[in-house]
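Take a look at my tokenised protein here and describe the backbone shape.
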Amino acid sequence: MTTTSSAVPPRHRSPLAVMAATETKLLLRDPAAVIFPLLLPLALVLVLGLGIPGLRQPMPELGGQRWLDTQLPATMTLLSAALTALTILPVVLTTYRDSGVLRRMSTTPAPPARLLAVQLVLYLVLVLAATALMIVLGRVVVGIAVPMSFAWFVLVLLLGTAALLALGLLLAVLTPSAKAAPGMGTLVMFPLLFFGGMWVPYETMPAGLQRFSDLTPTGAFSQALRATWSGTAPQPLQLAVLAGWLLVAGILANRLFRWE
């Protein structure tokens, strides 16, 4: 007499889940790629907040708000996203190419879009963690403000970070080698941080420079973040600019991507 086994075969994870798990393990093996973007913005918030008492005073050029209320936390959020997207992500992908990892991946059915999407989501999570850590400890230690329009803040954070990460993916695709990636990333990042108000507040920029800043991903991102911190909704133009950079940079990165 024969019996039929009723055991259910084990479920196999999807290729996307396997790739995501693998990329997460590889990221965690590089402490600098995690610790630097995670802790640098927090350290700057604590050092500046504790070391410069004037940042706690209302400033007329900021509409009577304190620097700690909007400018500092929004700028540090922008810094975390820009560091991750433009200096760390391109180095990782170009290192994969130089070391032959991408060539080995090309023998699998995985399309380039899957790899790029996994990288974008992985580093997006890292920026979210860095931002949460900065807000919580910055609030407890130096009293920075929490975003008053929290739902808008989450949307802007996701959209703005994704736009910068898409730009970082495009930069990685266009960079010839891992050795060139840090220099290329820095060359792109510093001008973008300037237009994001990192060194010169947006309000003090000339009108023409403000209009140009409004069309950059960092300028739109920074202004939208500050709006959510002050309790207002971001402007439609800012959201449109971020969505446009995400769409265009993402499509170009996917089309120009080469395994070798």
